[in-house]
Amino acid sequence: MLKKLKVGWFSFSCSEDSTIIFTELLNSHYQKWKNEIDFRSILVMQKKEDVDNLDVAFIEGAITSVLQEEKLKSIRRKAKKLVAVGSCAIIGMPSVQRNMFDEKIKSELSPFLIRFAYLDKVKKISDVVMVDDMVPGCPMNEEVFLKVINKYLCEFGITNKQK
Ligand code: SF4
To answer: Which GO MF terms are attached to this record (predicted)?
Structure first.
């Protein structure tokens, strides 16, 4: 069996535009990636999910609830490398906008935060777990994403040299 890079793609609170960019990239890269990448979890492509023992986890979006925080920590424990994808994941914006609301709006929102078990403050990914790499942009920069994925394909011994 060919060795493949075990990859998971996870979206938290965001508009999921980097996921759309990723699916666009599949148009030109799928034929190559299907021999190199084992997609263990990516809801936009498949229902099956196996997040144990991932090589690389790509994380899109910001963290808005305790449940999301726990899921992210669990992914971190199971992934050798974790990459924050897009501005919401890296710096929090624009998903963290509610952190900047004034006290009046915050108190109006507070019943909803309690009802849906949201955190008082939205967090960027590095507020919760260690991040190994970043793909900036809103949505993500395709060229940087390709550099990162090629770097890990090489680092994990799937391909011989970085492209
Ligand atoms: S980084 Fe931009 S494109 Fe990506 S989820 Fe956030 S708002 Fe949407």
So the answer is: iron-sulfur cluster binding; oxidoreductase activity
| Domain that residue 119 falls in | 5-155
Considering its fold, how many domains does the chain have in total? 1
| Residue 71 belongs to domain with CATH number | 3.40.50.700
Ligand 1 pocket: which of 10, 12, 13, 14 to mutate (most atoms within 8 A of CB): 14
Whether the Cβ atoms of residue 142 and residue 17 lie closer than 8 Å to each other: no
User: DSSP labels for 60-116?
Assistant: ESBEEEHHHHHHHHHHHHHEEEEEEESHHHHT-TTGGGGGG--HHHHHHHHHHHHHT
- Residue 161 in any domain: the answer is no
Indicate whether residue 88 lines ligand 1 (CB < 6 A).
yes
Separation of CA 150 and ligand 1 centre (Å): 23
pLDDT digits (tens, 9 = 90+) for 45-82: 888 899 999 999 999 999 999 999 999 999 999 999 99
Does 162 map to a domain?
no
DSSP state of 52: T
How much is the pTM?
A: 0.94
- Asked if residues 10 and 59 have their Cβ atoms less than 8 Å apart, the reply is yes
Residue 92 Cβ inside 6 Å of ligand 1? The answer reads no
